[in-house]
Amino acid sequence: MPIYNPKFMPKLIIDDITVEVPEGTTVLEAAQSVDIPIPHFCWHPALGKAGACRVCAVKMLDGPVRGIQMSCMLPAQDGMVVSTTDPEAMAMRKGVIEWLMINHPHDCPVCDEGGECQLQDFTIAGGHGIRRYDGKKRTHTNQYLGEFIAHEMNRCIQCYRCVRFYQGYAGGTDFGVMGRASMVYFGRQQEGPLDSPFSGNLVDICPTGVFTDKTARFRARYWDYDLAASVCPHCSLGCNITPAARYRELLKVIARRNDAVNGWFICDRGRFANAAVNAPERPRQALVDGKPVTVNEALDVLVLRVGEFLELHGPASLAIVGSPRMSLEGNIMAARLCKLLDAGALSYVGDAVQAERTMGAVSLLASGNAASLADVRQADLIVVAGCDLLEEAPMMALAARQAHRNGARVFVVGDECALDGARQELYESQAVTSLSDIPLTEAKRPVVICGTHPKRPDTAPLMAPLFGKKGLQTPVKFAFILDGPNAFGCALLGREHDAVPLSQAFAGGAIKGLISFEADLPAELTAGITVLAATDWQPTGLMQRAEVVLPCTAWVEQDGTFINNEGRAQRFKQVMRPGLPIKGLDPAGHPPRIHRNDAPGGDVAPSDRVIAMLIQRITGDTPVDGPLSGRWEGLRSLDADGEGKRLTDAA
Amino acid sequence: MELVLFRHNRPGRMTSFDEYRADGGFNALTRALGELSPNDVQQAVIDSGLRGRGGAGFPTGRKWSFVPRDLPGPRYLICNSDEMEPGTYKDRVLLEHNPWLLIEGMTLACYALGVNHAFIFIRRGYEQAAVNLRQGIAEARRAGLLGENILKSGFSLELDVHQSAGRYICGEETALINALEGIRANPRAKPPFPAIKGLWGQPTVVNNVETLSNVPAIIANGPAWWQGLAATPEAAGTKLFCISGHVANPECFELPLGTTLGEIIDGPCGGMRPGSRFKACIPGGASTPFFTHEHWDVAMDFDPVAKAGSRLGTGGIIVFDQSTCMVAVTLNLIRFFARESCGWCTPCREGLPFVRHILEKIENGSGEAGDIDILREHVHKLNYAFCALAPGAMGPLEGLLRLFEDEVREHIAKGACPFTTPNLCQN
Amino acid sequence: MIPESLRQELQRRVAGAVTPREAAVDVMKELQRHYGWLSDEAAEEAAGLLGLSPLQVEELATFYEMIYRRPVGRNVIHACDSISCWAMGGETLLRHLEQQLGIEAGGTTRDGAFTLLPCPCLGNCGNGPTIMIGDRLFGPVSPEQAGILIHELQRHGAD
Ligand SMILES: Cc1cc2nc3c(=O)[nH]c(=O)nc-3n(C[C@H](O)[C@H](O)[C@H](O)COP(=O)(O)O)c2cc1C
Ligand code: SF4
Ligand code: FES
User: Fold this and answer.
1) Which residue of C has its CA nearest to A191?
2) Domain at B17-227: CATH code
3) Per-residue pLDDT, A413
4) Model pLDDT, residue A604
5) Would the CB atoms of B343 and A183 count as touching at under 8 Å?
6) Using CB atoms within 10 A as the burial measure, which of A225, A504, B32, C9 is most buried?
7) Residue A242: pLDDT above 90?
8) More confident of the two residues A386 and B121
9) What distance in Å separates residue A70's CA from the closest CA in chain B?
């Protein structure tokens, strides 16, 4: 990751536009900053320069360097006069494209990258149309790289991005570059699944179709995709993603850039673990006592049964259960429902220890020293305590690796060091028994990363002395690994509404029934409790036991907000319409005999809407305020394409 | 004439340690460690006008002066003994006869640079040279001329021999550094230059075998004496010229720098072999543009050769007679460069095979008029490769198009190579 | 499996290097000397000795000309095809060697005695055409002399 010095700002002229950029910026980036695109293959903002492809040629007309230069390799300097349109520069770029196309198979019609291929774009942009080379093309054998990534080496243009990402950025050792001269081969020593938990980024980072996402192969062209800005729901980090869907089927997930959070990449769980969205058998049908009904009928029954339940047992015996994997909106509405019914307990988390640690983390961060993933990447000293980063928050491990590559020292504290599985693969760390062994005073950008998992030793008390510690060059920043994409939001709501962990709520024996929304609760915990209703898009145990089953949309089928582990609220947008994927429909039903506007299985709403409808029924048809009102008003204008909004900073 | 590099040579074998010492060997080192400061040694090399013998001709003393002496951590010296440029075999001949000059020269250089760990990076196939060096290093160490506290001066030096496994690109200094570190031998981006950030990120000087082997004489006899060995006032020192091809006596000779091409061929080379007339030569190893008869009187020194449109390069002169097809010569050279490309950058990896393809077509008789334009374009565009390999490869092609365009056109017009006599084995 | 003595020697070499990687080429060459070529097993062993993954060894092995990742004959004949040797009849010599051995350049004789590999400049340009058998350079080599050399090697192989 390049470090720029904003103190000195060289001023240069690019295509007659004056540009001022921080020292260390390349000419290529300086041009980009004023929307002058310069073709590039090997250069990548996260990987830096390589100077390999030579397609970013510009002509330096005046200043400290002259003539044709590679704009990716050249730091911007005062007095440079750059032309991207000079005929010689254009001829050079065209020549590079011609070379790259010599051995490229021209298989765009059958290539999955077609339409989202940088090589296509730059071939057009470069003006290369007629091939002068009439010899044989070089060919390679492809490898099986596992279930998720297809390999098509003939398309390779040797930009070296894949290996620079895989080995350099992500620390993988089972994939690389072999051979030399015109026979360089990017692959594994022997066929087999890629080891790196970040391997899927090869798909995004390859500028052409060497690595394509097998899960979406041959299903759609880029322009056919339903696309929207979204956020990954698989852990608490909130990496930004762009899911791609077609015909109500989530085809694949693409990493979406957010410099403050995930940068350019995501982990393989976020990319490849989404098959549940498409499962034809996932809850799509409202049920009452196992019988299919419409959503309205189900809600009517539920209102009646809740009334009966309250009459029989009293409101104190009812628990409303939200969830750290549900949107902020859903959880806000759950709290409102709880208040409306005067229910005995509002709960977002099952486990008391988890709840307590999450709460502790959130109150610590409230005073504004939360570390973003960007802070971790730029740290010069990192302390990891009580977590297995690769397991619990893979992108945090990758961020720590970047810091380590730039010279940061990493320390692991406590007896549980062995937990940190990322240690050997991604960075070297030093095990220490106590905080005093860590040279914190030497650090300019120290970050402490703590786990909150209930099965692990509690590290917060150990770290507490660092909080607001005097005598350091810079205050320590903290990152906590929480449990779920909205764990932070649930903690805020929990504090506001006096939520209790469900295990605690059940402890007194008063709770007899519950209504749950996208909650994952261990079966032992809820044994003997009546599940009046459950809302979810996943077939959880609660959904199987619920008297009233209300399916809801998955996150890609709705708008919503998650608050990530550092307190950053991020908006995700609806990518696709809910309903059975066409692929899952019974062919016997085609062509459809019944004409309707809804897709089959599409009669589902986001959880917050489900709760709103329920509230509306209970209160008697007065319109219900949207969830983002009152203290949440400020999040309404959140831009899904922005960096999100850190709630901890406001405090 | 006065020899420096071949002075101690014994016919057909390596000069022994005792013979070298008896000839005054290691006196320069003894004197330097006793009387001279590191800076004095560097200054002598600067004053001598010694220019690098590895191909680029960069002033050696100046290169040394770029090395910061105040950065923390070690500094390194690497002797570049990769010598894989076709037509070049001077370093092998030198090391097979006399590894002592290099050992002494490196020790002096390390003293000047404040280096305590140096490497000799030697190509594959130079087994005898490696054996000689290892033996030489062991003997010098026994005599207290290497290792800890050399001659009780407080200066220590470890000298390691690293044998490569064969790739021309390993001779490029930054690729060499990667190769030595055990990384794929792609060149590194410059800046930072090795003098600032080289081997394991530390300041590093890379010098050729012949370059370093000159240092003892410079220190022993003084820079002025050494400089005066050249044939012209502008040149400095002697040079190993290694000749191959169609001359009567193709050998490696030590001659005053600035001796003319004609003097070399007609002198020690004994003229052309019987039946051969001079047509052209490559003056300085495979990556230099051709010379023809019009260059007969060019002084073989860096600047005059450059002024005449070529490069002195390594001093590997490859001579061709009237029966030689220059398209075929160029094709042979391009095949070499295309095969030895490291595969990092597009112009070299893809452009050289394209050039090879076009030259094959022309040589096989299926060339077209437009092919010459394609070749010219490549001569220009391959200058923008990542390292100097691809631009070097364009040297002979540029020469072909400048000096032998008619011959190329004749191939195209005839639809066949006009040189029918195959190059037979001549022994 | 390599003999314990060789393993220990290589371990010492690796331990003596500034970084283990520095010894990579030495280790690969020694293993190649033992097996005749850098077999898959040898690549694994090299990886183990160097603390690298097999892929990382492969990245290096496939870069160098003289590391063989495919089996070769007991005698590897390298025939220089670079410019000086070419000018002195290197192509004719190569054709001759092909005929003599009954294989094409790049191939190995059926009995596993010879592999014939064209190669870049051997640094023996004044004595072209040059061939290298094992570590030994020969030049200038006439077709007749090549014939004699091969005969001698065949006889030695039979002993
Ligand atoms: C492709 C390539 C191959 C080279 N091969 C060699 C070589 O084999 N030996 C050598 O001394 N220099 C070689 N050089 C030059 C080196 O990069 C470097 O300039 C030289 O070793 C410096 O030594 P000197 O200053 O003593 O000449 C090569 C350069 C290039 C671009
Ligand atoms: S010019 Fe490019 S591909 Fe060729 S050797 Fe240099 S870096 Fe490698
Ligand atoms: S050209 Fe054959 S040994 Fe140099």
Assistant:
1) C55
2) 3.40.50.11540
3) 85
4) 94
5) yes
6) B32
7) yes
8) B121
9) 8
Q: How far apart are CA C84 and CA B246, in angstroms?
A: 9
Predicted local confidence at residue B420, as pLDDT: 67
Out of 1.20.1440.230, 1.20.1560.10, 3.90.850.10, 1.10.10.10, select the CATH number for domain B326-426: 1.20.1440.230
- pLDDT at residue A422 is higher than 70: no
Helices (H) and strands (E) in chain A, counts: 20, 28
How many whole angstroms separate alpha carbon B243 and alpha carbon B87?
Answer: 7
Q: Assign B427 a pLDDT band (cuts: 50, 70, 90).
A: very low
Q: Kindly report the nearest CA distance between residue A188 and chain C, in angstroms.
A: 6
Cβ of residue B353 closer than 8 Å to a chain A Cβ: yes
Overall average pLDDT of the A457-463 stretch: 82
How large a percentage of chain A has pLDDT more than 90?
A: 83
User: Which residues have C-beta within 8 Å of that of residue B211, sequence separation ≥ 6?
Assistant: B50, B52, B53, B54, B60
What are the structure tokens assigned to A565, written together?
A: 């582990």
Q: Which of A100, A126, A156 is the last residue of a domain?
A: A100
**Under an 8 A CB cutoff, do B346 and A52 touch?**
yes
Neighbouring chains to B with at least 3 Cβ pairs closer than 8 Å: A, C
CA-CA distances (angstroms) from residue A306 to A285, A330, A480, A545, A548? 21, 19, 38, 16, 11
Whether pLDDT at A415 is above 80: no
This complex has an ipTM of: 0.95
Give me the residues of A, 145-174, that contact C with CB < 8 A: 173-174
Superfamily (CATH H level) for C75-156: Glutaredoxin (3.40.30.10)
Task: Give the mean pLDDT of A281-294.
Answer: 96
- Rounded average pLDDT over A320-330: 98
What amino acid occupies position C146?
Answer: A
Comparing A117-126, A304-313, A452-461, C43-52, the range with the smallest average pLDDT is: A452-461
Q: Is the CB of B54 under 6 A from ligand 1?
A: yes
Q: At C158, is the pLDDT very low, low, confident or very high (cuts 50, 70, 90)?
A: very low
List, in order, residues 6 or more apart from C111 with CB less than 8 Å away: none
Residues A86 and A177 in one domain: no
Q: For residue B396, how far is its CA from the centre of ligand 3 (angstroms)?
A: 17
In testing the pocket of ligand 3, which one of C81, C88, C117, C121 has its CB within 8 Å of the most ligand atoms?
A: C121
Contacts of C119 in chain B (CB under 8 A): 166
CB B80 within 8 A of CB B207: yes
pLDDT at A596 over 50: yes
Tokens of B192: 């930072």
**Contact (Cβ atoms closer than 8 angstroms) between residue B111 and residue B232:** no
Note the ligand closest to the C-alpha atom of B105: 1
**Contact state of B88 with C121 under an 8 Å Cβ cutoff:** yes
Best of A143, A177, A178, A428 to disrupt the C interface (most C CBs within 10 Å) is A178
- CB contact under 8 Å between B87 and C125, yes or no, is yes
- Can you read off the two tokens belonging to residue A210? 């060497």
Overall fold of domain B238-272+280-321: Ubiquitin-like (UB roll) (3.10.20)
